[in-house]
Write a structure and sequence with these properties.
The chain has helices at residues 16-19, 28-43, 55-63, 72-95, 114-129, 144-149, 153-162, 199-204, 217-229, 244-249, and strands at 9-14, 47-52, 101-106, 133-138, 167-172, 193-194, 233-238, 256-258. The protein is α/β, with parallel strands linked by helices and 264 residues long. Strands 3-4-2-1-5-7-8-6 form an eight-stranded mixed beta sheet, with helices on both faces. Helix 7 (153-162) packs parallel to helix 9 (217-229). The longest helix is centred in the first third of the chain and has 24 residues, at 72-95. The N and C termini lie close together (7 Å).
């Protein structure tokens, strides 16, 4: 595992609660800040892969539904509407910094079929060689199980391992892992480093995500555990300030750092 400053290939996962307001509409200022930071990191020589949630939330806002749908057909329909809007926004914003993007829609079973896995890996490699920024999401419109699974946290870990990334950064609506729920306990303390994810660590994670997403800290722990078992360190940090990404990659004590369990 490389040090943070020398990490070359970085997977960043951003959730619906970071990208949108409570209304479901895009948080334009936040997305613009995120794109600016990612474009700058790419200018500095990083290979950036963005795993972006938000298709269903954006679709809900665009269509004007009062809340996130609960039935699968409507979720899939909103994903179809929202994914177009998301990619339009990303393409427009990254183009302002002279960077090109590529849409990659995946289902988690891609890792189960060696031939498909190899094709996906080759596609990522070629995109990165061409200087593109792959923007990854679940193929929610056709894959039912993915919608029910949990806000792309596990997908981001899968992408990190598929692409042999140096690190995985998960942007959340919380500063990291706490010893107890900080929304309910003002004296909760952030845990800066986790060496081993075990039952004690899982017991600290509680609560679901916001009403715009489906993930919570538990799904982030699953992702960090998967990545760690494949030699990739993970940091969970607050995405409300995208500039935090600079601090992480400079080795500053931001968020919660989950150590890798073995070397590549």
């Amino acid at each position: 595992m490389r040090t943070w400053k020398t990490a070359k290939r970085v997977v960043i996962k951003v959730g619906s609660s970071t990208l949108t307001y409570e209304t479901g509409n895009i948080n334009i200022r936040r997305v613009e800040q995120l794109v600016k930071v990612l474009a700058d990191l790419k200018n500095a020589g990083k290979e950036i892969i963005l795993v972006s949630s938000g298709a269903i939330a954006v679709g809900v806002g665009k269509v004007g539904l009062p809340e996130r749908p609960k039935d699968t057909p409507t979720k899939q329909a909103m994903a179809a509407v929202g994914q177009c809007e998301l990619m339009y926004i990303y393409d427009k914003l990254f183009t302002q910094y002279n960077h090109k993007v590529a849409q990659v829609l995946l289902t988690r079973d891609v890792v189960d079929v060696p031939e498909r896995k190899a094709h996906v890996q080759n596609t990522f490699e070629r995109l990165l060689e061409m200087g593109a920024i792959p923007i990854v999401n679940e193929n929610d419109t056709v894959a039912v199980e993915e919608i029910e699974f949990g806000d792309n946290d596990s997908l981001s870990a899968m992408v990190a391992t598929l692409t042999r990334a140096d690190t995985l950064l998960i942007l959340s609506d919380i500063d990291g892992l706490y010893n107890k729920n900080p929304r309910e306990h003002p004296d909760a303390k952030r845990i800066p480093v986790v060496e081993q994810i075990d039952e004690t660590i899982y017991a600290m994670a509680s609560g679901a995500g916001s009403n715009r997403g489906t993930g919570g800290m538990v799904t982030k722990l699953h992702a960090a555990q998967w990545a760690g078992e494949h030699g990739i360190e993970t940091v969970v940090l607050n995405g409300s300030r995208p500039e935090n990404l600079y601090d992480v990659l400079e080795g500053q004590p931001v968020g919660t750092r989950f150590l890798a369990q073995k070397s590549e």
